[in-house]
Write a structure and sequence with these properties.
Elements (H helix, E strand, L loop, with lengths): L2 H10 L10 H20 L6 H9 L11 H30 L5 E16 L2 E11 L2 E2 L3 E7 H6 L4 E11 L4 E2 L2 E2 L1 H6 L1 E16 L3 H16 L2 H12 L7 H9 L10 H15 L6 H18 L4 H19 L5 H15 L7 H38 L6 H8 L7 H31 L1 E3 L2 H28 L4 H4 L1 H16 L6 E3 L5 H14 L7 H20 L1
Helix pairs in contact: 2-4, 2-13, 7-8, 7-17, 8-19, 10-11, 10-12, 10-17, 11-12, 12-13, 13-14, 14-16, 20-21
Length: 554
């Protein structure tokens, strides 16, 4: 049998299992299924009996394909437990949010300041550990304070106020299901502060550190530079002028202001860089990296994207130190299990969808895109040589295949470009429908701007954070240390002051569930997660692409 026949035979026969068994991934899917069923019953007021029966019967068709029946039933029990956890946690979270006392009038409130967000008219204060009219209540209060009250109160202050209070615990608002508000426990609203008094200081180290770093930025940088730096470091965009922030959104790079895998990954890489030549035992290195990431995550409030990024980084690093095979999809599934068990409503929040969607897109599509771009580069070189009638030397072919070192400068540069672009494109492909459905538009220029601003952010984030920390420890040096970051930030924001990026967006009314299913079906089968022959893989991709086109037209 010649080489060509062997290749064809290999393509026709699927080697091994079609899908590798991933228990954590399956548990995460059943958890999400339970959350969706609970949403359908609690929010949509539908009858979830059929969905529950479907969840119970779904695993049993695989019974006939499994050799070890005992292990199969153990897996079934674990999957059912994940489904019930999702079902129950969502119902409990929504019920807890709605089952609170109703207030509407002027009351005496005691609480602790945990967030300060400056606005044009003063600022927004977030209070927790609430006591209203002498009765302790759960949840948080958002207070719209004037400038004098906002400046007088600081992070971790235990305050007593006389103000207008109203209960706002509706689960649906002007923009649909209030997923983030329920997860954060933002139940009460306050305004028109008639009187206030600082009674002491609460021990909240994360809030204190965040306030200290934020105060350092505003004291040492210009207003715009400090607002943008605060958004980059802590995800707080309230200080950015609304027109500028809207133009950044139109440019498709507003995600750099949401602390996520980009920020955590940069801090993680910086820690590894510092520890690379130190002869510290592996467990202590893991402890040091974990402490830094957990400290920074606490300062940022442990948002879902932060928790997801910390878990994936630490699991991957732990597997590397222990010499254990690392499965990124299982690591991401573990993060989803933890985040959505604690905060089940965030499944329907845009922030969590973008965070997990981008990461999943990179896992599924980055490799196929990179291979495709590298093959395109090879084809261009071969075509150029044919046109120029210059024979393709065997040495060059070997270098393109990666078999004969050293690689040429052109090949090495092209592989690095393909590696970066594939990750960027994969994340944007995965998140484009989410952004389109959530905001009603898609930015055409986002591809170009992400290729510019994301690498700059990845390189400079850790330096900005380190300089901010040092400036907080040594305030006398703050003006000097933060001068270059302030200047750089102003230069980076200059295009968004000059250009009107609203002209570069595609406006629409959103995509249907069927269209989304076909769109992501293409992406799933384009990945390397299914052990299929080429004709099977591209056949399924073609079917989903055809259905997507039909749904889009309809």
């Amino acid at each position: 049998m010649n080489t060509k026949e062997q290749t064809n035979t290999k393509e026709e026969i699927s080697v091994g299992r079609v899908v590798n068994f991933r228990p954590v991934f399956l548990c995460a899917l059943f958890l999400l299924f339970g959350i969706f069923v609970a949403y359908f019953q609690v929010v949509e007021q539908g009858n979830a009996v059929l969905w529950i029966v479907l969840a119970l019967l779904l695993p049993f068709p695989f019974f006939f394909f499994v050799k070890k029946k005992g292990r199969f039933f153990i897996c079934i029990a674990v999957l059912y437990a994940a489904f019930l956890i999702g079902l129950g946690s969502f119902s409990v979270a929504v019920g807890k949010y709605q089952d609170v006392p109703t207030y509407n009038g002027e009351y005496c409130v005691v609480g602790t300041v945990v967030e300060k967000n400056p606005t044009s008219s003063g600022g927004e204060l977030i209070l927790t550990d609430l006591t209203i009219d002498g009765k302790q209540v759960s949840g948080r209060m958002t207070i719209n304070a004037n400038e004098s009250v906002f400046n007088a109160l600081d992070f971790c202050d235990e305050v007593k106020l006389l103000l207008d209070v109203s209960t706002y615990n509706r689960i649906e608002g002007n923009y649909g299901f209030r997923a983030e508000a329920i997860a954060d426990g933002r139940i009460y609203r306050g305004g028109n502060v008639a009187w206030y008094e600082v009674q002491g200081r609460a021990f909240r180290p994360f809030s204190y550190l965040r306030g200290k770093l934020q105060d350092t930025l505003y004291a040492s940088m210009g207003d715009e530079g400090a607002a943008v730096a605060t958004a980059i470091l802590f995800g707080n965009t309230s200080g950015i002028e609304e027109g500028l922030l809207e133009n950044v959104r139109y440019g498709g790079i507003a995600h750099v202001f949401a602390v996520s895998g980009l920020h955590i990954g940069s801090a993680f890489a910086f820690c590894l860089f510092l520890l690379r030549r130190n002869r510290i035992p592996a467990p202590f290195r893991l402890l040091i990296v974990a402490s830094v990431l957990l400290l920074y995550g606490g300062i940022c409030g442990y948002s879902p994207s932060v928790v997801r990024a910390i878990i994936t980084c630490l699991v991957g690093y732990g597997c590397t130190l222990l010499g254990v095979k690392y499965d990124p999809l299982e690591s991401l599934s573990l993060a989803a299990l933890i985040v959505f068990t604690l905060y089940p409503t965030l499944v329907f929040g845009v922030g969590a969808q973008l965070s997990f969607g981008a990461c999943l897109g990179i896992l599924l599509l980055a490799k196929p895109l990179r291979v495709g771009m590298e093959n395109l580069g090879k084809a261009i070189v071969r075509a150029t040589r044919r046109i120029c009638k210059k024979p393709l030397q065997e040495q060059s072919v070997d270098m393109f295949r990666g078999n004969t070192p050293p690689k040429s400068l052109w090949v090495d540069a092209w592989e690095k470009v393909c590696g970066f672009l594939s990750v960027s494109f994969a994340a944007q492909i995965a998140t484009a429908p989410i952004l389109y459905n959530a905001f009603g538009y898609f930015s055409v220029v986002s591809i170009l701007l992400n290729c510019i601003y994301v690498p700059l952010m990845a390189v400079s984030f850790s330096g900005l954070l380190l300089l901010t920390v040092v400036s907080s420890l040594f305030p006398i040096l703050a003006g000097v240390l933060l001068y270059v970051p302030n200047l750089s930030i102003n230069l980076l924001m200059l295009p968004f002051h000059i250009l009107e990026l609203q002209t570069g967006i595609v406006v629409g009314s959103g995509l249907s569930a069927e269209t989304l299913l076909c769109y992501y079906g293409c992406g799933v089968f384009l990945s390397d997660k299914f052990n299929l022959a080429k004709w099977q893989k591209w056949g399924l991709v073609g079917v989903f692409a055809f259905c997507f086109t039909i749904c889009l037209i309809v």
